[in-house]
Structures are given as C-alpha cells and as structure tokens.
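Our preliminary data section would be incomplete without showing what the modeling component actually yields. Below, a chain of 88 amino acids is followed by its predicted structure, encoded as tokens that our downstream tools consume directly.
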Amino acid sequence: MPTALLPNYLAVPEANLHLVPDNVSDEQAVFTEPLAAAFEILTQIQVNPGDEILVLGDGKLGNLCAQVLRLTGAKVTALGKHEASSSS
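Predicted structure:
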C-alpha cells in the first residue's frame, strides 16, 4: 500500500458522502466543507447584532467566516495580508 500524500483510493464512511446536484458546478461544490466550517463558528461563540468582530485571516476561510458573521448583523472587520481585504 503506497503511503503517498494523494493516494489513488480513500475509504470513508458512506454517511460522509453527499451527492452534488447536476445544477451545482464543481467550482461551487468545493466550498461545501469550508462554508460548513464557517457556519460552525456560530455554535462556538455568541454573536449579537451590532457586535464588533475581528476576523484574523483574509483568505478563503476567513472571508467565509466574515460573511457568515455578517449575517448575524455584527460589524465585521477582516485583517490579513491580501490587499483587497474588506471591512464593514
């Protein structure tokens, strides 16, 4: 059995697999897990409308977390190394 980082086969429980509808592109589907991780933050902290929140990291996951937190009405600032970071 090879010990390569990207093996040819991977065994996972069937419950971990989800069918992607035909109308969802691969480019959209790859965000399922990171978006789920971003929504998980709402189970870990209490966020109220108007709260001021700083998200450290402005990469893909940081931006997804910022967007999820904005849905709560919080004032979110993303801080990171990318030039086009946004805040509100």
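The mean pLDDT is 89. The helical segments are 26-29, 32-44, 60-70. Preliminary results of this kind motivate Aim 1 of the renewal.
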